[in-house]
Amino acid sequence: MTRDDKPFTLDDFSKARANGRKIVMVTAYDHPMARCLDEAGVDCLLVGDSLGMVVQGKADSLSVTVDDMIYHGKMVRAAARRAFVVVDMPFLSYHISDEDALRNAGRILRETGANAVKLEGGQSRAGTVARMADAGIPVMGHVGLTPQSVRRLGGFKVQRDADAVLADAKALEEAGVFSMVVECVPAGLGHRVTSVVAVPTIGIGAGPGCDGQVLVLHDLLGLEESMRPKFSKRYAEMASLVRDAAGRYAAEVRSGEFPGEGNSFR
Ligand code: KIV
Q1: Measured from the CA of 25, which atom of ligand 1 is nearest?
Q2: Contacts for 55-59 with beta carbons within 8 Å, 24 or more apart?
Q3: Is the CB of residue 179 below 6 angstroms from any atom belonging to ligand 1?
Q4: pTM for this structure?
Q5: Whose CA is nearest to atom 2 of ligand 1?
């Protein structure tokens, strides 16, 4: 990854695509992790509503609220010096009416200081996205597997209806998204979406043909052990590291080795 200390801006998404430079996105939910990711040179931090699963321990993201997103979004925004920060709009925060969507997106941007919001869905959300874009709100789209529709989709499954995914992607592009996540589609379809739309695509389980990639932080770090999606890759085994460190601490407290002289005041 090339490091560059200038903030990653909205324009940098299209510039990266034009220059063939892959966009690197990772989810973040709190200050210390966001700071490490920012310092590592990650371009974009996504405060994903996946926090419902990886932070709150739920089976899906449906119970996450706008207030939850704002709480986590503020911490991530405060830590990011260079990275572009996108905050997810949670389930039912943009479905009831365009007015509701505008109000919730406005709250998220104002109260967190994030650069953009992300929402799920294609053709059915295009009208709402157009209203938001018209109001000056930068919107990232999300097509393919849309986790907020997990109950209708019947589970977290690879989406193979190429016509539907392509039509969703085109509808979002026309509505004015600046970029879109493409989740859990066959690699060939990820590549096709990227060739038919003019905005950068960020893949997760969509193969190498997208303009960038995103991973859920807890998958990347090996902190989430209850599932191991085929499309993710562990770059560390942090759950083991945490268990090991906490186990050594517990043993030292029990044996009286901690606190030692060096950890005590005279
Ligand atoms: O909520 C999330 O973390 C996401 C990513 C999976 C793209 O939307």
Answers
A1: 7
A2: 55/29
A3: no
A4: 0.97
A5: 48
Q: Is 183 a catalytic residue?
A: yes
Any ligand 1 atom below 6 A from CB of 27: yes
Nearest CA to ligand 1 atom 3: 48
Mean pLDDT of 211-227: 95
Domains by residue range for the chain, with CATH: 10-235 (3.20.20.60), 238-266 (no CATH)
Half-sphere exposure of 53 (CA within 13 A, CB side): 20
Dist CA 69 CA 56 (whole Å): 12
By residue count, the chain amounts to 266
How many whole angstroms separate alpha carbon 37 and alpha carbon 167?
34
Q: pLDDT, tens digit, for every residue of 18-37?
A: 999 999 999 999 999 999 99
Spatial distance between the Cα atoms of 131 and 136, rounded to a whole number of angstroms:
9
- Ligand 1 touching residue 182 (CB < 6 A): no
Residues 88-116: tens digit of each pLDDT? 999 999 999 999 999 999 999 999 999 99
